[in-house]
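Sequence, please.
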């Protein structure tokens, strides 16, 4: 069995309450695209301003990147992949360990160079060869072989890699020669094969412009798009209400109804591939006992919390698999929901009285925002049955340093979030496999699990057949829901608000794909 066990990218850990993979703007006249000014899209957070997809590890930069670069494949309206630069589906050989891709001959980069198999090969292999933070998404590739300019062979090694098609195959394609000639310049002034060209990098904004010679069938209706960061919720909401921006991302829960009832504004929402959860310390201390974990889950109502604090912008979760991914795989979500502990403070107290120390007052680590509110709700409910909790709100870096210790003196629970793609491996392997534990991994908790738990996670990863993987994943999910090493909380919806002169804007489940300006199913325009 091949060792597809290496560390996954930690960029998918959610520091804030935002969906990972996203962009923004403020301060110009709404609808000005029709006058030749840029269409304004206001993001929730600042970017790292790295625009080379080989090295960029920042959600908000990727919203710009996705406009400039075309992928070998791309997401359709959901989390299903469809060909873009690829001519069609790949030929799969050697029991799922060899993929042969054919590239559309018409595909060209912004500088007029043809997109070749060598460019695609470089896009697949450079993250590992250059030891970038994205390496783990590609290190299952053993070798590539350029058959000719339009055909590429990719070999995965001795065993298949189940998530390859949904997680890796949609690689964004870069021009090898241009990129390697001056990587620093390419990172700040990239050349892609997408419908928009990189135009301007300002201190607070990025602009892209329509590429008139785009090789594909799609032609954007908007001429230019300006992405500008505005991480103040009140400021973003004010800018859309006043018409100073065309679209804002991530509508705050408390402002949803205000904007919904305001003339001249439309709201857009989609479930996302994010997973917010509370993890228990399964390494040491009282929470190593599943009865204590179950008691805490009984002590408060997750549904009530969501309805009162985030009902407009979140969707409840009942397993480690976000609902939008569950829609693709058709796991029995209702059965998982029925397995979770219901709100029952009497049962919570009874279990804690029997299984927890008399002075049990767990420490909960949390970032700010919605998850801090959830931590406070849990502490309040535990206090009402005679226990309580110590909520420690930390910045993201401090939280990561502390939760990686696994020490009961540091915490019994922590609240974090994760964002993946359309494959269960993105969530199950990343957050539960033993290789992902500790200071270099994505999880601070270690859950030993049943005898075959970790072996099964690896076995499913090294299989190509989706039905066979499903049969492995279902009992793994049931064990997690029953034993509660983590308690699923909610998925953050991808939300936007736009002025009513913006037509055909749709929210996509993948945050990096938003805003979708031009696609087979949507083409944004301005009245």
């Amino acid at each position: 069995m091949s060792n597809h066990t290496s560390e996954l990218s930690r960029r998918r850990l959610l520091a804030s309450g935002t969906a990972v993979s996203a962009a923004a703007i403020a301060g110009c006249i709404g609808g000005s695209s029709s006058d030749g000014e840029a269409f304004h899209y206001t993001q929730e957070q600042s970017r790292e301003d790295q625009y080379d997809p080989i090295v960029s590890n920042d959600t908000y930069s990727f919203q710009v990147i996705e406009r400039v670069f075309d992928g070998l494949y791309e997401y359709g309206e959901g989390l299903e992949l469809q060909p873009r630069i690829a001519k069609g589906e790949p030929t799969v050989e050697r029991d799922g360990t060899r993929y042969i891709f054919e590239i559309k001959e018409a595909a060209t980069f912004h500088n007029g160079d043809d997109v070749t198999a060598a460019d695609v090969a470089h896009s697949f292999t450079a993250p590992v060869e250059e030891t970038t933070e994205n390496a783990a998404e590609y290190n299952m590739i053993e070798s590539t072989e350029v058959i000719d300019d339009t055909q590429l062979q990719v070999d995965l090694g001795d065993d298949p890699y189940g998530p390859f098609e949904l997680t890796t195959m949609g690689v964004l394609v870069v021009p090898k020669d241009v990129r390697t000639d001056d990587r620093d310049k390419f990172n700040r002034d990239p050349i892609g094969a997408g419908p928009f060209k990189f135009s301007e990098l300002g201190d607070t904004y990025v602009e892209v412009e329509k590429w008139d010679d785009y090789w594909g069938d799609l032609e954007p209706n908007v001429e230019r798009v300006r992405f500008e960061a505005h991480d103040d919720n009140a400021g973003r909401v004010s800018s859309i209400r006043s018409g100073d921006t065309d679209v804002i991302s991530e509508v705050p829960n408390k402002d949803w109804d205000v904007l919904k009832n305001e003339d001249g504004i439309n709201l857009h929402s989609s479930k996302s591939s994010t997973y917010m959860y509370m993890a228990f310390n399964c390494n040491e201390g009282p929470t190593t006992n599943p009865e204590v974990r179950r008691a805490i889950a009984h002590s408060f109502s997750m549904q009530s919390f969501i309805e009162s604090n985030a009902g407009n912008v979140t969707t409840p979760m009942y397993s480690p698999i976000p609902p939008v991914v569950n829609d693709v795989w058709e796991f029995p979500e209702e059965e998982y929901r029925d397995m979770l502990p219901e709100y029952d403070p009497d049962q919570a107290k009874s279990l804690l009285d029997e299984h927890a120390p008399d002075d049990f007052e767990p420490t909960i680590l949390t970032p700010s925002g919605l998850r801090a509110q959830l931590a406070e709700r849990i502490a309040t409910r535990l206090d009402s049955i005679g226990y309580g909790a110590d909520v420690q709100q930390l910045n993201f870096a401090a939280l990561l340093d502390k939760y990686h210790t696994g020490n009961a003196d540091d915490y019994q629970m922590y609240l974090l979030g994760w964002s993946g793609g359309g494959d269960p491996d993105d969530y199950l392997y990343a957050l539960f496999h033993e290789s992902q534990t500790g200071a270099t991994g994505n999880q601070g908790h270690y859950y030993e699990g049943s005898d075959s738990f970790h072996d099964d996670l690896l076995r499913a990863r090294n299989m190509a057949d989706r039905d066979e993987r499903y049969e492995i994943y279902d009992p793994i999910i049931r064990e997690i829901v029953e034993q509660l090493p983590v308690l699923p909380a909610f998925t953050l919806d991808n939300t936007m608000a736009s002025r009513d002169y913006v037509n055909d804007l749709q929210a996509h489940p993948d945050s990096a794909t938003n805003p979708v300006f031009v696609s087979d199913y949507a083409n944004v325009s301005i009245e």
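Residues 10-269+494-526 form a domain with the D-Maltodextrin-Binding Protein; domain 2 fold (CATH 3.40.190.10).
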